[in-house]
From TrEMBL:
Keyword annotations from UniProtKB, A to Z: Isomerase
Pfam families: dTDP_sugar_isom
GO MF annotation list: dTDP-4-dehydrorhamnose 3,5-epimerase activity
Annotated segments matching region Disordered: 188-209
Recorded GO CC terms: cytosol
Active-site residue list: H60, Y130
Site description Participates in a stacking interaction with the thymidine ring of dTDP-4-oxo-6-deoxyglucose, residues in chain: Y136
Homology family: Belongs to the dTDP-4-dehydrorhamnose 3,5-epimerase family.
Record-level GO BP terms: dTDP-rhamnose biosynthetic process; polysaccharide biosynthetic process
Protein name, entry field: dTDP-4-dehydrorhamnose 3,5-epimerase
Length: 209
């Protein structure tokens, strides 16, 4: 396991097993996640997305409370997965970290309630699996623009990006903050000790004005 640069986010090594038949990977272990969090992760929803190369999804998060913790991996193709701290009051607010996911990069990412999630498909047929701690409620879903220059997420250079209408029309982090759309860190359930030594360099949060 590796603590990411965003408080409440972890990278988990899936340790696949290879034999003459192929590969078996235990992509989620309740015992391992319980040891990490100090309690089991409730699973209310399991989802899958399949994306063509260049698709960008995010930055998505869920209103708190109750928020929605997520556990994410990629089982076909490859993605670059981003965790963004959009929680007002968090010691790592405005920072991000990223992990490459897919066969050959057998990892998963855990995101605590209130964290923003995004990824870009680096190949066609990029297949991402999600476990979520709360059911889908469209009225609670929120988005920050994935191309927000203040976040400066390093999307692949020169690649054609495909975004949904919802993501194209999303506010920047600063706009979402002004409009009161961001979750409060104090209202999130899962928090962990900050360690900014791991992962990507800290990113500055946009001004509140």
């Amino acid at each position: 396991m590796r603590r990411l640069a965003v408080d409440g986010a972890w990278e988990i090594d899936l340790r696949p097993h290879h034999d003459e038949r192929g590969i078996f990977a235990e992509w989620y272990s309740d015992d391992e996640v319980s040891a990490l969090l100090g309690a089991p992760m409730p699973v209310a929803l399991a989802g899958v997305s399949i994306s063509r190369k260049g698709v960008v999804r995010g930055v998505h998060f869920v209103e708190t409370p109750p928020g929605q913790a997520r556990y994410v991996t990629c089982v076909a193709g490859e993605v670059r997965d981003f965790v963004v701290d959009v929680r007002e009051g968090s010691p790592t607010f405005g920072r991000w970290d990223s992990v490459r996911l897919g066969p050959g990069h057998w990892r998963a990412v855990y995101l605590a309630e209130g964290l923003g999630h995004a990824f870009t498909a680096l190949t066609d047929h990029a297949t991402v699996l999600y476990l979520c701690s709360a059911p889908y409620r469209p009225e609670r879903e929120r988005t920050v623009h994935p191309l927000d220059p203040a976040l400066a997420l390093p999307w692949p250079a020169g690649a054609e990006r495909s975004l949904s209408a919802r993501d194209r029309e999303a506010p920047t982090l600063a706009e979402a903050r002004r409009r009161g759309l961001l979750p409060a860190w104090s209202a999130t359930v899962s928090r962990s000790t900050v360690d900014t030594r791991a992962g990507s360099p800290p990113r500055s949060a946009p001004p509140a004005a």
